[in-house]
Amino acid sequence: MTNHNNTHDTVRKSFGARATAATFAAVVGLTAATLIAGPATAQDDDIKGLWVANDGKTVVEVDRCEDKKGRICGTVVFQDGVASTGAVGTELLINFKGAKVQGQKRWESGKIASLEGGKALKGNIVLLENGGLKVTSCKRGRCSNQTWNRPPAALAEKATATRGGSR
Q1: What is the Cα–Cα distance from 41 to 72, expressed in whole angstroms?
Q2: What angle do CA 129, 135, 139 make, to 5 degrees?
Q3: Of the chain's two ends, which shows fewer C-beta atoms within 10 Å, N or C?
Q4: What is the DSSP letter of 80?
Q5: Which residues pair with 24 in a beta bridge?
Q6: What is the enclosing helix (H) or strand (E) of 16?
Q7: What is the value of pTM for the model shown?
């Protein structure tokens, strides 16, 4: 009878160890997912707002995408000194997701459109230490970089007034 109780205790301990291991694995997985997703979402706030594309005239509003809230998009909201404002409303930054790369504030897996039209290219975005936004687009292994900056106060006011102060 003593053997029967020992067998029963061994089964109970084994089952308890498996349940504890499964619970531990679930907690570790959830914590890792939070750590991976959390910083990317938090860093999105660092690039939200108005940016001037490197032509110095096109103001782009960067915010969460309308259809994919976990992604970042950028839409032309104003063009200074341009007779035709056909570009206003054009989405230049399309569906970027935050990435954690050695302390960089970086967004990847998105596409960058051109004001001239054509096919949007794969690219990435990096917030530079000097406050600029490095926008890189690549086609067939060749990449080009632009540096966008925050608009001066006067240009930001024009862009906001044109949009009717929305957002």
Answers
A1: 10
A2: 145
A3: N
A4: T
A5: none
A6: helix 2-47
A7: 0.70
